[in-house]
Amino acid sequence: MKVLVANLGSTSFKYRLFDMHDERQLARGGIDRIGSAESCVAVEIGDHKVERTAHAPDHAVAVRLCLDQLTDPKNGCLKSTREVSAIGFKAVHGGSVSGVQIVTDDVLAAMEEMNAVAPAHNPPYIAAMRLLRDKLPEIPLVAAFETGFHATIQPCLRTYPVPYEWAEDLHIRRWGFHGASHRYIAERTPQLVGRGDLRVVSLHLGGSNSLCASRDGKSVATTMGMSPQSGLPHNNRVGDFDPFALPLIMKATGKTLEQTLDVLANQSGLLGLSGLSGDVRDLEQAATEGNQRAQLALDVFVAETRRHLGGMMVALGGADALVFTGGIGENSVMVRREVCRDLADLGIVLDGEANQSVRGEAKISAANSRAEIWVAPTNEEIIVARQTRAAVDNVSADG
Question: How, if at all, do strands 84-89 and 48-54 pair?
């Protein structure tokens, strides 16, 4: 079975193609600037790389262009598109519809109900899924929702203290996100440590950020709540925020509720604090040059990560392993150092030299650290590919 895993943006389509017989990645690529006169098409198959321009007015055409490259007689890795058994999507929010689902009208309707909660994620996925169902009906579509991994969290850690009917009728609860990433780390860490009965805190730090506490490979607690805007500060999203500040902001600025929420979702986080960038690399450089707002943004980010780390460890009753992943988690020496600073009483001691020199997957804890500290690149795509294969297999078995 060959599975295409899709990652969508409003004007982009990125993919990886896996042969699920041995989980080999056969190809990766994508298209940027969908909808413009000239879209940029890229594909990498083994050592062969191709980039060219084409016209992709919508995501369905973008997928078809990518499939054409994959089936190219000279450089492709597929004889026919019929070899693609399914397309899997790292879907974000379906409210009460979670887990892994074959895409149907009911699934799309459930996602639409959550558009206001996930405005940057759900609409492009819904639009693309509808187009693909219409134009490529021979290929099953599978939605692997990020919320699914967190279904094992106990109700006391998922329930907001709001009128009970809101949770029952409106699905107002702490759903949690980055499920594919946290699932991968929860499955990979026992292989790294050499034992299975682990309490793991995974720190997914990148453009979007969350922590997850897992025990024996199952989610116990996480930092994101009802929406991907919550929890830690993000590159341009606010994170945790007191909703009672909204009337004051609206009155002072004259903005509507929708305009205010747009600022919180797109002009806040590290970008809003620094006034410079939402990219930690830019902020670290600016901070070394004396930019105080850049330094403040970094300090807030680290402080919030440490605050939530404490909560994750309490939920687990301690931690056997901390795993940094994501663009920041894998690459920022400073963030890892500051998050782990002065935590020896909690059993967390960083090896400064290992932290400075780490590349790829490696342990960076000191010899006297009770908890092992790791850097581990995540692989959300292989998780979605496995879930997609299982969903298609289940349908075949039922049929």
Answer: unpaired
